[in-house]
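Could you help me review a protein record that somebody else here produced? What it holds is a sequence and that sequence's fold in token form. I need someone to confirm that the token line plausibly describes how this chain folds. Take the sequence as given and treat only the tokens as open to question. This is what I was given:
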Amino acid sequence: MTPTLVRNQPAADVSAPADAGTRARDWAEIQERMLAPLYEAVYDRMEVGAATRMLSLGCGSGLAMLVAAARGAHVTGVDSDRERLALARARLLPEADWDDAPAHSPRPARRRARLLEDGRPAPADADGAPYNLVTVFEPIGCAAGDSEGLVPALRSTVPLAVRGASVVLTGWGPPERCATAGVLRVAARLAESARPPRTDPGRWRPTLRDDLEDVAARAGLKPDGSGRVSCPFGYADVNSAVRGLLSTGLFDAAVRATDRSQVEKEVAEALHPYRRQDGTVWMPNVFRYLVCVT
């Protein structure tokens, strides 16, 4: 549905730190679409359609919600990143937030979405029906502590869903199946190069085989199937690749340990093996998803 190879992005001043707005736009315009095959595979597996009432935890800038809504689903998204959430609103609610409309007012089919800031309660969908699908499309298993906040979020979400509802968790595949893992090792090396070494949450670490199963067990969810999806990362050039990768947050610990310009320089060097003759960058990756039931 969504092309993986992104258009050429204008050059940025790599010596300047990216503000929150720029970072969110880089995520929405460059990086988020790399996970589109994962969204589509999960929705095919879960038969997402008009009967689906989906809650998306960590909805980001809303692409996964947009894909689900296009299939007829009613979608609610929750995220703590206000900049990404603002972009999601622009995508999903281009005219007005219909949550504020009178209950008797007509609701066009394309407005099957609402967005909530993280920390607010996420009640049943706008029609009063409980959720029957909960998704977590922010992949875990590639940064230290990246699942710590997810477990309590899942525990608080389960009571909002129907009994036996599906919960889908996603994560990075085995490092040997992810070309991007080699580039992400730059983040770990730079974070560890500081004196004393930085050990703060968010630093890169290799994906473990049971990352998703561990989260499910701690959240009291029962696994009910899994799958793997090919999600190649394709960029128009090295500059776009650097901007997209840094928008993920996986290099934040490295930036704190050194500085953004050094991280960008070393990431660009690490991308050279994946650069094609036409200047594009192509990195095959595999992502996992785990289907659970409440």
